[in-house]
Write a structure and sequence with these properties.
This protein is an alpha+beta fold. The protein contains four helices and 21 strands.
């Protein structure tokens, strides 16, 4: 029992000392502390999500031949801007042109025979069955001519989209063939391209694809995807951002990464962005209406929760429990306080409940914390 009594005495003594430390009596409290304070006001706060992603092309096409043939002429240069329908390559068209001319001649003759058959039927020189045969022959010949014309068109390869041409993988005289695998084989005697002859990429506008964590998806769903805006930066150029808007939010969450994919489109008229670049994305997901914002440094964190020093009567401070609903870039949206209350922003490290304070002369006109600017908004929720 003696040991138990000794332990109780020690605990009571330690508890009394701890209480005096955190809540010292007036006689033991330090002198007046110099702090910076601000009056709380309501503000609209943009909710920012920060993420990383990749620049991707809005349109990209591998130009491949549809027939096996020899390249006769190349009409573009590497890196050239091309327009939709512009002639890129001409293949050897002699055989296909001869077939087309033959089919066209047969079709023209079949059409003349049909006209004669119509005249003879009108004069009762041939039966209606003869006219039907002439009509069938004319249609068949015309179809053969159109097929030959399509085959001939494969020898003239045109740009399917507007964009910039990449590296050309063939040369005049190269043998090209249809294929889904992009390979180019060269030797001392020949070059054969199987797959893409050139890749055309649309650079303006251009897209950025990034992911948003599963916990931030409700923020995205609360807004119209077409109204969501992004700010994108690449490389070390953190000061230069490219503005854009969200195109689409994927219709499912990838369970492997616990995130949803988002694609946004940005202007690239100066061609400063290229597909494949690493990008930092800032997305304005939503807006907190009439929120109270303070610098994060004003929040006191201890084992009992989060608090803030409020200045009361006679310029004495007291700890008031709060909840932080959102925090970003050194700003915290809090609840549990009232508009118009005066709170300590700087100098809280030397304060205790009941300490008397005075305003710092250099910050006598301190304003409430300002919400993050929409222009500097990000994209991975904190």
């Amino acid at each position: 029992r003696k040991w138990w009594l000794l332990a109780i005495v020690v605990l009571v003594y330690a508890g009394n000392k701890a209480y005096d430390h955190f809540f010292p009596p007036e006689s033991k409290r330090g002198g007046i502390q110099t702090v910076t304070t601000a009056l709380l006001e309501k503000q609209d706060i943009p909710i920012i999500i920060e993420s990383t992603g990749t620049i991707v092309a809005n349109n990209i096409v591998d130009v491949r031949p549809q027939v096996t043939n020899v390249v006769k002429e190349i009409h573009i240069k590497e890196g050239q801007e091309v327009k939709k329908g512009q002639l890129l390559f001409t293949l050897d068209d002699r055989n296909d042109r001869a077939n087309y001319d033959k089919a066209k001649a047969v079709a023209d003759d079949a059409q003349r025979q049909l006209q004669r058959a119509k005249e003879l039927v009108a004069q009762n020189f041939i039966s209606k069955a003869g006219l039907d045969t002439a009509e069938a022959n004319a249609k068949s010949a015309a179809a053969s001519a159109r097929a030959a014309e399509v085959q001939l068109s494969f020898d003239y390869i045109r740009a399917p989209i507007d964009g910039r041409a990449g590296i050309i993988n063939v040369f005049p005289g190269s043998l090209v063939a249809p294929g889904n695998v992009v390979t180019t084989t060269s030797s001392s005697t020949a070059t054969t391209a199987l797959g893409a002859m050139v890749t055309i990429t649309q650079l303006d506008p251009i897209n950025v694809q990034f992911i948003v964590g599963e916990d931030s998806i409700p923020l995205l769903m609360q807004s119209d995807p077409n109204s969501l805006k992004v700010a994108v930066s690449v490389g070390d150029q953190q000061t230069q951002t490219f503005e854009g808007k969200v195109l689409v939010i994927d219709n499912q969450v990838d369970p492997a990464i616990g995130a949803v994919r988002v694609k946004a489109q940005i202007a690239n008229d100066k061609r400063l962005l290229l597909p494949g670049q690493f990008a930092r994305v800032k997305l304005e997901a939503n807006t907190l209406k009439d929120a109270i914002l303070v610098p994060s440094q004003a929040v006191v964190i201890n084992p009992r929760g989060r608090f803030i020093y409020v200045v009361g009567a006679e310029d004495k401070v007291s700890l008031k429990p709060i909840k932080v609903s959102y925090e970003y870039q050194g700003k915290a949206a809090i609840t549990g306080v009232e508009v118009g209350e005066r709170v300590v922003i700087e100098g809280k490290q030397n304060l205790r409940p009941g300490t008397k304070i005075r305003e710092s002369k250099s910050a006598a006109a301190q304003k409430p914390a300002e919400a993050p600017k929409p222009e500097s908004k990000p994209a991975d929720k904190k």
